[in-house]
Amino acid sequence: MAVFLPLPLPLQARIRLAQGLWLFSWLLTLAGGLTLISSGHLLAQLWHLSPFLDPTCSFPALPKTALAAGAAALGMGVVGAGITRASLDAARYPPWRGVLGPILLAGTLGGGGLLALAVGLALALPRGLDAALENGLGTALAHYKDTEVPGHCNAKRLMDELQLAYHCCGRHSYKDWFTVQWIGSRYLDPNNQDVIDQIHSNVEGLYLIDGVPFSCCNPHSPWPCLQNQLSSTQVHPLSDPRQPNLNLWEQGCHGVLLRLLGGLASTLGTVLGITFLLQVLVLLGLRYLQTALEGLGGAIDGEGDTQGYLFSGGLKEMLKSAFQQGLCAQRPVPEEVPPEAPAEEVPAEA
């Protein structure tokens, strides 16, 4: 029966293949470790920024899947390095000979499947970050004033820390604070006529002002931060065009977080792509080395030339055999008919 994708492997080619696979296995181990580090860093950032993401966001599935794929790739790299090192010594290879097949199957279906899934998620999931941050930051701004509401009492502290740490203000700009009531009701005097007029002037009954929280201020500003009456032309200019962010942070948190998480996802996707390529090369090389050594009884320096291959039969024969096996499995087994009893002989009359 013809083999699928045969490759002639004389002695020197077998030795070079084993030595090259040893190097690629350690490269796969390094790539798996980088995948673990990149996915762990992204997962930590998402955990820190989870209050500003929509709860329905599926983006955290990317680093979780990448963690599992990185661990599988790291393990495959270490095992592959051990197998290729042992294959150069006929006395050390026999213990690996019986388990190499299951290892290749597990590496292909498990490790390769996880890496392929992680690469697909790295390409698809970042597209939903824009909407997830848009909804999450909008919710965070709306609950900024709810310092005494269970479940939202930390919203103010988290938003202030976000704006101070990432040098941003509002969702897209400082003007986003003009559309939400960010001052708590406990700090408003219900008997003050200005407060009453301000609330009645809004259809939603909110106390809106053209000001921003202190966390929007640049602490390195040369003058006191301007937080109120920002829409008035008589107030000192908001910022100097030649020196942006001189008074308030001009960039919104949405753009800052989108660039941060998008950049981390892009880096992780690149690492996953390299890891997937190395995994494929190592698995293919190990399969060719395995089948070549099987033809020599497990000795890499055995006499005579041999060839490696991916499958023992051609692709057409494999598909035909699988199809026939499927038909046989679906076809009902006919019931056995019990044999008929032999007819009794009637004695002849005398």
TrEMBL record:
The keyword Membrane applies. One of its GO terms (cellular component) is photoreceptor inner segment. The keyword Transcription regulation does not apply. It is found in: Membrane; Photoreceptor inner segment. The chain crosses the membrane at residues 21-47, 67-88, 100-125, 264-286. GO terms for molecular function: protein homodimerization activity. It holds the Pfam family Tetraspanin. One of its GO terms (biological process) is photoreceptor cell outer segment organization. It is a multi-pass membrane protein. Keywords: Membrane, Sensory transduction, Transmembrane, Transmembrane helix, Vision. InterPro entries: Peripherin/rom-1, Peripherin_LEL, Tetraspanin/Peripherin, Tetraspanin_EC2_sf. Belongs to the PRPH2/ROM1 family. This is Retinal outer segment membrane protein 1. It comes from Vombatus ursinus (Common wombat). The gene is ROM1.
